[in-house]
Design a protein that fits this description.
By secondary structure, the protein is of the alpha/beta class. It has 17 helices and 24 strands. It has an 8-stranded parallel β-barrel, surrounded by 5 helices. Strand 17, helix 11 and strand 18 form a beta-alpha-beta unit. Helix 1 packs parallel to helix 2 and helix 3 packs parallel to helix 5. It is globular and about 75 Å long.
């Protein structure tokens, strides 16, 4: 329990508690060797700047040998591992802090762990009430379990502004995610500026009145009727975000979804479709014609610009949910299938995928795709498959020596509803915080040679359900589980509500050794310190809810979502809040079904109100 009180998320590989505390004071400084490479100095300067605002301290960078009363010393150590190793060793003593790492990423993660050892106010933007900046003395040896730790944000169905993306990347880096998966195109919008093909964003980035793209069927009241909605990211926007993310040790993985999910591209360039093309309002037909040779020239122009914008060695090209019906009736596709000796045009997707993988290879990039590309690429190609419908496709691909990222919907799809009555997708069932934490990327894989092909974990936030919800009405029980729109204005606020703290659970699945994981200790760390950090970071997160039960003696009990959580309740079927009855112990109630309870976070934010759990007695 003493270690859990530190509230470290994700949990490090090894923590040794020691007596005493280090105090960060106004005379503290970061110490960096004079011979340190510029990239290490940049990381240290960034982490120092993150602490200057909340503490009000100067926290300069000084060289070794400088007289410093409270030093935070950062140095590279080849003994930790190879240069690209993300591991670090953190020693916090009463007189000084030492971070040793193999490279800049490890140094960054070590300093982020040190930041978590300080009070939660260390994650705020400016000086608050007087705080003693004490960090518990510890010895931590840490490195990630998996090298691929990503979160995907769908910016096609919902366009997010750049300020939100900067914050989102910040939050990922705090949780030691190292990849921001940027979903840039889909049926509802093409969001990336391609200067050689300006029509892609001129027509494909907008929908509504006077636009080539129809209003999506999931559009809600947040978008005024008759308006023009959408947007795109300029190439300068991309460069700035990539640079910002890189400074925080986050690579940006762009996704252009091909050959399906392409209604936006088809609205801009209808010629990309098959000869028997259907109208762009019909989602199932919007796939690129693979038999049209000019399409590959167009895609070469797209890839030329995309690959120059994103330095990350991987590019995601989708490949999911391709309805090949349009190809079957297309003379061009039928002719191509015949030339290639295929049974019919419905078998052309592997050919298309391999051709694009080769195009990426010419540009020094490797392909990433959804699990559907498993039969399209050789394991020796270096392609990465993302297993999303479940773990089984990923396990099968890993056995075939493919590199696999696990993101099964039942554990990692953040667009799924979190609880009964809450909004979200449902095809993978409800995905509460506990389901995210339960993700074990290596479950069912006993062969170490197969396990080594599972390279990581991904969370995915699709954005159909991030629009405005109706005004709440307490008499309407169907709306009782919606978040407060004042706390979570759509769509960015609801994106945050859907992501956090579920992404924190996924961060631990990606980083922490299996033997060091456990839901109960995680919840203790989350409620004990980490929710307060999320609040200081400005996140509009979802507060985990309690459970209402009737005990065997007939009394009503409210089970806290984390140890020591403040619980409030009402007994007359009205919405409880921070001023409602304080739950202390089980109580008698003539009508348990009318009891409703909430958990209250440290910042006063409340969970959804829950009723009697009839399965627990």
């Amino acid at each position: 329990m003493e270690e859990e009180a530190l509230g470290l998320v994700p949990q490090p590989a090894s923590v040794e508690l020691r007596a005493g505390h280090f105090e960060l004071r106004a005379d503290a400084a970061f110490v960096v060797p004079a011979c340190a490479p510029p990239e290490l100095r940049d990381v240290v300067e960034l982490c120092a700047s993150q602490l200057r605002g909340p503490t009000g301290f100067a926290l300069p960078l000084v060289g070794e040998g400088a007289a410093v009363a409270a030093a935070i010393a950062v140095a590279l150590d080849a003994g930790i591992g190879p240069e690209d190793d993300e591991g670090y060793v953190l020693d916090v003593a009463q007189g000084a802090v030492h971070v040793r790492a193999a490279g800049r990423r490890g140094a960054f993660y070590g300093l982020q762990t040190f930041r978590q050892l300080l009070p939660p106010e260390a994650f705020g933007e400016g000086p608050g009430p007087a705080v003693r900046w004490l960090a518990r003395c510890v010895h931590i040896e840490d490195r990630p379990r998996f090298c691929w730790r990503s979160v995907m944000l769908d910016c096609s169905r919902t366009f997010f502004d750049m300020d939100f993306l900067y914050r989102y990347v910040d939050w990922l880096s705090v949780h030691k995610f190292n990849i921001f998966h940027w979903h840039l195109t889909d049926n509802e919008g093409w969001r990336l500026e391609i200067r050689a093909l300006p029509e892609l964003t001129r027509a494909g980035a907008w929908y509504g009145a006077g636009c080539a793209l129809p209003v999506p069927s999931f559009r809600c009241a947040w978008f005024p009727s008759g308006a023009r909605n959408g947007g795109f990211y300029s190439q300068e926007d991309v460069r700035l975000l990539v640079r910002y993310a890189a400074a925080r040790c986050v690579d940006v993985l762009p996704e252009i979804d091909l050959p399906g999910h392409s209604s936006a591209a088809a609205a801009a360039m209808p010629e990309i479709l098959c000869e028997n093309r259907v109208d762009v309002t019909e989602d199932h037909g919007m796939i690129w014609c693979v038999g049209r040779e000019q399409n590959y020239a167009l895609l070469d122009r797209v890839l030329d610009e995309l690959c120059s914008l994103f330095p990350f060695r991987y590019v995601h090209l989708g490949g999911d949910e391709v309805d090949c019906g349009a190809w079957l009736g297309c003379p061009r596709c039928t002719a191509m299938a015949a030339r290639e000796g295929l049974p019919d045009a419905g078998s052309l997707q592997p050919l298309f995928t391999r051709r694009l993988a080769a195009a990426l290879a010419l540009r020094g990039k490797l392909l990433v795709g959804w699990e559907e590309i498993a039969g399209s690429v050789e394991s020796s190609s270096g392609a990465v498959l993302m297993s999303w419908t479940g773990a089984e496709p990923g396990c099968a691909a890993a056995k075939n020596r493919h590199q696999v990222v696990m993101c099964p919907g039942a554990h990692a799809y953040l667009d799924m509803a979190q609880g009964p009555g809450e909004r979200g997708h449902s095809w993978a069932g409800r995905v509460p915080l506990s389901a995210c934490y339960a993700l074990d990327p290596l479950a069912g894989i006993d062969d170490p040679s197969v396990a080594s092909n599972v390279v990581g974990v991904a969370g995915c936030l699709w954005s159909e359900f991030l629009l405005e919800w109706p005004a709440l009405g307490l008499a309407d029980t169907a709306k009782l589980h919606e978040p407060n729109p004042r706390e979570c204005p759509a769509p960015a606020g609801f994106a945050e509500y859907q992501t956090w703290p579920r992404a924190a659970a996924l961060a631990e699945a990606a980083w922490t050794p299996a033997a060091r994981r456990g839901l109960a200790p995680f919840l203790a760390r989350l409620g004990g310190a980490h929710l307060a950090r999320l609040s200081r970071l400005g996140m509009r997160y979802r507060v985990p809810e309690p459970r209402v039960m009737v005990r065997s003696d007939g009394r009503v009990a409210v089970e806290a979502p984390w140890p020591g959580a403040e619980l409030r309740y009402e007994t007359d079927d009205v919405e409880p809040g921070p001023a409602s009855l304080l739950y202390v112990e089980p109580f008698e109630c003539a009508q348990p079904s009318r009891v409703r309870a909430v958990a209250v976070a440290p910042d006063g934010r409340t969970s959804i109100a829950v009723r009697l759990d009839c399965t627990q007695r």
